[in-house]
């Protein structure tokens, strides 16, 4: 929780600094015709702190679990004032989760899942990572105009991700254990999103609706962990 509190303090500080340190508004000559068909098409870059919800008994996170996100969103205004619209995009992301949940192989090659006890097994790294193609769908509200390049925004929506590659890595007393293209990961991962802020930098939250794993068991307990991502997203017009 200390790390999460630190992240929110960091977010608040960055928002305060960068909301003032952006491109100056462009002034239009008096004879310029206003663009009444403008759109807020945007490239985006984001960084998140990744958390695991619904962790099985004994599973805990450690270190900083990061996510990086980038893509493009097409804006579709739906009212005359053009301050409300829909957004449809395409992007990529990579998400890592540092924890004590070990993915390894048994003697027959079958996957096994173990909760590590640091008192029994020492390690310096244990994480799993997903690489996804993403389709963000948004309902967008903003205070922008055809000449105002600094504005407040609230974008809510749904994010659909396709996991095209995944991996896990352990380094410790058991040696180095690597896995890739682990079949127990859900190919499709989706969740609710919200981003809000002023000008370029915005707070971003993703709440996963389905599980990261489809068929993973700790003894007889189904692993139904979900992702929660909190961070910053940077929109570029």
Structure in words:
- This protein has one helix at 2-18; strands spanning 42-53, 66-77, 84-98, 101-105, 111-115, 123-142, 152-172, 175-180, 188-198, 201-208, 217-218, 221-222, 226-236.
- Residues 1-32 have low confidence and may be disordered.
- An 8-stranded antiparallel β-barrel has the order 1-2-3-6-7-9-10-13. A two-stranded antiparallel ribbon has the order 4-5. A two-stranded antiparallel sheet has the order 11-12.
- The longest helix is centred in the N-terminal third of the chain and has 17 residues, at 2-18.
- It is built from 1 helix and 13 strands, in the order αβββββββββββββ.
- The protein has a single domain, classed as Porin.
- It is 7% helix and 55% strand.
- It is mainly beta.
- Pfam families: OMP_b-brl_2 (PF13568).
- Residues 26-213 form the Outer membrane protein beta-barrel domain.
- This is Porin family protein.
